[in-house]
Amino acid sequence: MPPDHIHHTHLQDEAGTTALGAALAHVLEPGMAIYLHGDLGAGKTALTRALLHAAGYEGRVKSPTYTLAEPYPVKLADRMVTVIHFDLYRMASPEEFLEAGFREHFNENSICIIEWPEKGEPVLPAPDIHISLTVAGHGRDVELRALSDKGHQCLARLKFAPNL
After folding, report:
1. CA-CA-CA-CA torsion for 95, 126, 121, 85, nearest 10 degrees?
2. Angstrom distance (rounded) from CA 102 to CA 97
3. What is the rounded CA–CA span in Å between residue 26 and residue 161?
């Protein structure tokens, strides 16, 4: 695998977060797992919402804080894919993840986006991409790190110019 593929960028505002989510929607592939890191209010759900809307999902996207997982059927590159948005913040233990049968969602027909993945370690499948969001002034700093061949290919195709 090539050396770590890392993108650093600063998003000035909510529009920047939306643009990044839309750009990601165009390069993700079925079978990927994306971990989102960041404090409460850092923009993890906003990024996921933008990605889902750019992928054609027209309904409301809310954080699955209480349900832990929300599936969204979307069409990516003429193929139906289920994007599953996980929010593990309220999960009591990693065993809860296993008991709920969530591991079976990690397959070639889905893209799993996980907020608070540290709550699910060590039972979570390995990620293809880590995205870290940090509040910085009125905007946020973002680091995207590829951790697999699929992740590297995805970030290599990413076309994103933030509103600098």
Report:
1. -70
2. 6
3. 14
pTM assigned to the model = 0.91
Which CATH number is 5-157 given? 3.40.50.300
In the block, residue with structure tokens 């809310």: 62
d(CA 35, CA 88): 11
- Give counts: helices (H), strands (E), the chain: 4, 7
Residues 136-148 have pLDDT tens digits of: 888 899 999 999 9
Token pair 């990927």 in the structure block, residue:
32
Give the single-character DSSP code of 13. Answer: S
**Assigned token pair, 30:** 């079925």
Q: Does 1 score more than 80 pLDDT?
A: no
